[in-house]
C-alpha cells in the first residue's frame, strides 16, 4: 500500500474531524402536539447540516460521559504538547518509528473512540443525544436544525430525518417542509428522497453538496496521492480571502508569496514527504484502518469512477459483508441514481436549487488537485454533471455547448458548461465561494428562492436577472452579483 497515500489520508481525515460545522445535539423528547392547521403560507424550513453537526458522546448518561466529537481544544493542545519531544527527537536522530509510535498513541487517545463496529454501525458506547424540536416558530427567518452522526450509514440517518420532518409538521400544523441541505447534508437528503419520496417536501436547496462524491475521497481511498507545491500555494491564494480580514490577508499572503517564490515552500513539502514515507505504514495500519474503514459517511463521498477500486484498496479480501451491503446500497441506489432522483423532483413540480461553488483550489493532497472546486467538493460533483475546465483554465477557444437545449449554459469566463448537469436549468454556480461559507448575499438568494416556491412554474436560472446561472461572490461586500 502506498506509504505517502496512507500518511496523507491520516492528515486529511484528521482535518475533516477538526474543520466541521458547529455541533448541535438531539434528544428523544417528543414535540408538543399541534392540532390546528397553520394557514400562514410559509412552510417551515429545515436546515440539514454539514459533517460534524452533532456532538458525539462516549458513555452518555454515566459518570464517565465524555465528548469525543468535536474534541475540546485542550485535547488538541495536549496532542501538540505530547509530540514536541518526539518531533525534536526525530530531527536529531531520524528515528521515524519512535515518532510514529508517539503520534499513534496521542492521536488514538482523541480519535480512537470514533471507530465504528465492523459492520458500519456505531459501537454501543458512542451516541448522540437526540432531540426533536419543541418550538412551533417557523417562517423565512427561522430554520429548524437537523444534525446527525457523520459516521453513520446515510440511509439510517435519512430515517431519523424522516422522523424529524414528521415532528416539525406536527408541531407547526403544516403538511410540507422546505429544506436547505449543506455539504454532507445533501448526502442525507438524497438518501431521504430515495427512501421516503418527496411528498412532504415543498422545495429544496442543495448547497455545495457532494451529491456525486468528492475526488479527494476517491483519490485517497484509491492511493492516488500527490502533494503538489503549486496546489498548496493556490489553496492559500483562493481559500484564505474567505477566512481572513483584508489586512490580515495581505500580511499572510505576503509571507506565503515569499515562501513560494523563494522555493522555501517546496523545500518544506519535500521534507514533509520524507517524514510521511517513513512513518505512514505504522500510522495507517495501527490508527487509520481501525478508525475509518467502517465509516459509512466517509464512504458516501467516494465518486463512482473510484468506488470499486476504493473497496479493493481499503477493505481487501476480508471485507465485512454487512458493511459492504450498506455502502453498496448508498452508492448504487442513491449516488448512482442522483440524476433520476433530482429529475423526479422537477417532474413533481417541486422547486430545486443546486448551488455549486467554483474557482477555489481543491484540497491540495491528491492527483486531482487541478480540479475546479469549492475547496472541498469538486464543482463537477456538486453540480451533478457540469463540464468544468481545470482550475485557472478555460474550456478552450471555439468550445461549443455540449447539449443544445435552446439556452446558453456556458459561463461568461468560458470555464463551465452547465448543459450536461442533471438539472441544467436549476443549477447555479457561485464564483470564489469557499465550500459552505455564506453571508447576507447567500441569504438573499435563498430567501428569493423560498419566496418563489409557490409559483405555478418552479423558478429556474432564467427567472430573475439578479440571480442568473453564473454568480460572482464578493466576500467583503457580502453580495452575489451576475458574473461579467
**Largest pleated sheet:** 8 strands, mixed
Fraction in beta strands:
5-15%
Helix content: 40-55%
Q: Could you tell me the number of beta strands?
A: 15
Low-pLDDT stretches = 1-35
Number of helical segments?
Answer: 15
Q: Taking Cα atoms only, what radius of gyration do you get, to the nearest Å? A: 23 Å
Number of domains: 1
Principal-axis shape equals globular
pLDDT averaged residue by residue: 91
SSE arrangement, N to C = HEEEHHEEHEHEHHHHHHHHEEEHEEEHEE
Main structural class: alpha/beta
Oligomer: single chain
Gap from first CA to last CA: 47 Å
User: What is the spatial order of strands in the main beta sheet?
Assistant: 5-1-6-7-8-13-14-15
